[in-house]
Amino acid sequence: MLKIIAIVIISLFIIFSAYLWIRNTSYMSGVEEIQKKLKNTSGQKQPFSDSLVKELPETARLYLTHAIEPGTILAEGVELKMKGSIKTSASAQWMPFEAVQNIKLGEGFVWKPIIRSGSFLRIRGVDYYYQNESQMYFALYGLIPIVNATGEDIARSAAGRFLVESIWLPTQFLPS
User: Fold this and answer.
1) Pairing, β 108-117 against β 121-130
2) CA angle, residues 173, 105, 63, in degrees to nearest 5
3) How many CA atoms lie within 13 A of 76 on its CB side?
4) CA angle centred on 14, ends 11 and 19, rounded to 5°
5) I need a labelling partner for 72 at 20 to 30 A (CA). Which of 41, 94, 164, 173 fits?
6) SS3 (DSSP) at 104
7) Are 114 and 123 in contact (CB under 8 A)?
8) Sheet holding 95-104, edge to edge
């Protein structure tokens, strides 16, 4: 009898794990598709020149001429690789993380961190903003969801983040 109960429990665990893995794989393939679109470029090779910013206010002109050297081919996107520490709340412990973020001119971003908590715990996440939609999704070991947030507030917050993080892609601030 105990053997049957053990087999049932193990079988349920395997089925549940497979369900979580399939669900996460499906979700992540959608995110990978967005990330691929953010990495694609039009292939245009327009160089930066002072004439591109001559109509801008002085502060914007100074920023852009300092951030982009004349003759530099204008970037449509950027991929950032980062390491650091992150907190989930003011009272939480700092946790080390590594992440990759893709930002594309006028389109959005995808941020994919792996956060370590303690020796064994790993949290994989995605935070994206694309076509005025956004989602934050974090899961233990990439399987067990712990954060899954969408909606207007998340999209508005992500749009603000996109604007602030455009500092890494100064061409974002050039006139169209």
Assistant:
1) antiparallel
2) 25
3) 11
4) 125
5) 164
6) strand
7) yes
8) 77-86, 95-104, 108-117, 121-130, 133-140, 144-149
Q: What is the DSSP letter of 126?
A: E
Q: Tell me, what DSSP letter sits at residue 62? A: H
pTM, entire model: 0.81
Count Cβ neighbours within 10 Å for each residue of 80-102 and write b for 16 or more, e otherwise: eeeeeeeeeeeeeeebebebebb
State how far the Cα of 51 lies from the Cα of 90, in Å rounded to an integer. 46
pLDDT of residue 116: 93
Q: What is the CA radius of gyration of the chain?
A: 21
* SS3 of 8-61: HHHHHHHHHHHHHHHHHHHHHHHHHHHHHHHHCCCCCCCECCHHHCCCCCHHHH
Structure tokens at 144: 């067990």
Cβ atoms of 109 and 38 within 8 Å: the answer is: yes
Supply the pLDDT for residue 162. 95
DSSP state of 74: P
Rounded-to-integer distance, Cα 2 and Cα 151, Å: 47
Q: How far apart are CA 40 and CA 130, in angstroms?
A: 14
